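Example complex used in Figure S2.
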Amino acid sequence: MANRPIKFRILELFSDEQSHWNYEIVQKIQKEYNQMGDFQRDSINFDIIELASGGMLKDTETKVDEEGIYKKGFLLHKYVITDFGKVRASNVCFVYV
Amino acid sequence: MDLQALKKLEHQRRVRYGYMWALFCAILWGLWYLPGTVVWVLNPFDEMYAEIAAGSGDSIALLVTAVLITAFNALTVIIALMVWNGVLGKFGEMKRTLVEFKPCSKWFFLASIFGGPMAILGSFIAMGFVGAAFAAVAALMYPVVGSILASQWYGEKISKRAATGIFLIIVGGFVIFGGGLLTELGSGNVQWIGYIGGLMAAIGWGIEGAIAGKGLDIAEPDVGLTLRFLGENIIWWVIAVPLLAIAGFPMIKYALMAFEPLTIMVLVFAGITFGFCYVTWYKSFPLIGVGRGQGIGNLYGLFAVLFVILFFGDVPSWTLLLGGAFCLAGSFTMFSEDTSSLESLRGD
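Predicted assembly (445 residues):
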């Protein structure tokens, strides 16, 4: 799995059109790409932020991270892929129906 | 703190990071003018210029020397970027992105064509055939090209306020370089090729930004940028320099002579400032958009003049103060924009 650029893989994970929490995706990518450090964790989260800022993901729900699932006191976001995100995902050759 | 307040805070932080990156870009770009200017009078480039000028004339000498300098610039930039990516541990991601040529890395190679031979060489042509002030002013127009392309091509949102800010910064640039520009244009017999060079710079960098924005949708900025410079190195070292050598210019001879301590130091300084100016430029695009990133990046004109004054001791003229005021007004117009509409940079 871990042989495509991380942003491709993130879009692919969202291609099921379900909402996912950012920390779920981050943890998944960290495991797949074997990038367990805090810096890499933030860097992957930043990729998600960039995808959202580029209009490929949009957030559907936010909550404050009370328990420190990801980073205590910060916001957790739940994202879903947008139509534009689907277009870009299909551009990068996923089988997208 | 409640959810709404935190949300707003997080959003503001993102936009602030974007502007901060773009501002660093402007500062580093301005700094780059120091080694970028000094390198022309250093060995072996001054000898090279003299030798070619004796045989083929000043204009050709300028262009050919510019190619070699730009090639070395690209080389030191990529070394700086490799170190950067190494520290960040991004070689793996680089390899993964590189092999995705069709969907992704082709954008960065395309960007390198527009940013390298077109924009940088265009700048040098404008500098050589019209003058440095004209080259600087012409390049200032690139955010106009970049933001129009980004909005027409992939619907990036450019608010009236951002457009006003970009416009004010460009006016500021015109005023800063205005005196020199009038002198250069008034000196008569300006060759039209100089204007083409200016146009190449504005269009080249504008297109580069828009194309890079497209590739950055689905790639990491640090990685994308390194690929863009990989492309530029190929263009210079595999295509341009050998072609000129075959055409009979003493490229190889002077390239080998560049390994002098002082020259290398200046080139490394150029590589670091140019490299990181680009790093910050590319990092700002996904956060605040191509239009805003380029607009703030345009403050390089102001910083370049400031650094030249600080380091070379030139006396600032009143045009700098007036132009600088325009630049600040333009930046402030953009910084102070209510960014809640920037939740996404793209239109729905």
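The domain at 6-89 of chain A is CATH 1.10.10.10 (Arc Repressor Mutant, subunit A). Chain A has a mean pLDDT of 86.
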